[in-house]
Amino acid sequence: MDIVGFLKSQFICHLLICYIFIVSGLIINFIQLFTLILWPINKQLFRRINCRLAYCISSQMVMLLEWWSGTDCTLYTDPESYKKYGKENAIVILNHNFEIDFLCGWNFCERFGVLGSSKVLAKKELSYMPIIGWMWYFLEIVFCKRKWEEDRKTVMQKLLNLRDYPENFWFLIHCEGTRFTEQKHQISMQVAEAKGLPKLKYHLLPRTKGFAVTVQCLRNVVSAVYDSTLNFRNNENPTLLGVLNGKKYHADLYVRQVIHILILFWHIEMRIPLEEVPEDEQECSNWLHKLYQEKDAFQEEYYRTGTYPAVPVVPPRRPWTLLNWLFWALLLLYPLFKLLINMINSGSSLTLASFAFVIVIASVGVRWMIAVTEINKGSTYGNNDNKQKQK
């Protein structure tokens, strides 16, 4: 291991990275709180400011993947379709198989300049999480309780509010509803058999109602649907802890268009004009089920050949994620080191013990944040028999 790789694996480096993320994130959350006074005066200005503030937080996570980990990103796409990315509103369908799905989704957004304005359909519990959850609140993220009878009205209203959004945005949605595990897959396929639907090998059955409502509410606002399926080469199983340790991954993103094909470092994409997606809820549901059958076939082909069709392209990394992180590092590390030196010079046992206690708490906090992304500690949504009915 070289010296750089050794340093990346050291816990003290991880603590410093997390210190910068947590402190800068809380500062930005505090600033976002004050932007609320703009909402009744100039809603669009409020939105534009919060897009930039949100970028300051989410780009730090992307920096870890792009610059710290150095994960390879390869994109296969049609040149004409490639020109549209980042210049139109889109619904992005993501699969949910890996611990860093969310980070890959953000990386995709960053490569095409829509990271700050990207939207998601997220579970309500995440809205209470400091930094990212609070950031999402100011971005008008759509939160749901995963109980469709209670969610429908709220989700529709939140989606309709996005119809006059002033920035180009991508709405990221995991139609499977939860991360893939073997247990959840077995339950999902039992549901498929009961409903007479074709079984899937590499995906859970999509939960179609949320997608149908999203299409219904954002029609005439969103131009296309990008269907995306994440894969990593050589059976790599990427984790956030691996990224934090500086481990390099190799991701492939296939984008077909009915039509158009893209590979970024992880996913399979497909640009589909939104007018091709049916408006009727049942027809939209059938359309989505068919899409997932096609996704399964592409996944099968990838596992068999280890590649996708089309010409590979490697979109260049933008420097802004790194520059943003360096800004916050320079701003926050100096007072930290100055405080540490003063504490050591004081020679007070109580002071040093207090500092050690803070380090322990920070370590626990770092581990908790990482655990949120781990598959074996993820949501039990979809595991229980009484939840077999697909939304």
Task: Explain briefly what this protein structure is.
With 391 residues, the protein is α/β, with parallel strands linked by helices.
Features:
single chain, 391 residues, alpha/beta, Glycerol-3-phosphate (1)-acyltransferase, 6-stranded mixed beta sheet, 5-stranded mixed beta sheet, 11 strands, globular, disordered C terminus
Count of helical regions:
13
CATH T-level fold name: Glycerol-3-phosphate (1)-acyltransferase
Judged by helices, strands and strand pairing, the structural class is alpha/beta
Q: Based on the structure given, which CATH architecture is correct?
A: 3-Layer(aba) Sandwich
Portion in beta strands: 5-15%
Q: Averaged pLDDT, please? A: 84
Return the string of H and E elements. HHHEHEHEHEHEHHEEHEEEHEHH
Report how far the terminal alpha carbons are from each other: 48 Å
The level-1 CATH class: Alpha Beta
Low-pLDDT stretches: 257-268, 385-391
Count structural domains: 1
Q: How much helix is in the residues?
A: 40-55%
Instruction: Give the total of beta strands.
Output: 11
Main beta sheet: strand number and arrangement? 6 strands, mixed
Strand order of the largest sheet: 4-3-5-2-6-10
Using the CA coordinates, give the radius of gyration.
22 Å
- Taken from the alpha-carbon principal axes, the silhouette is globular
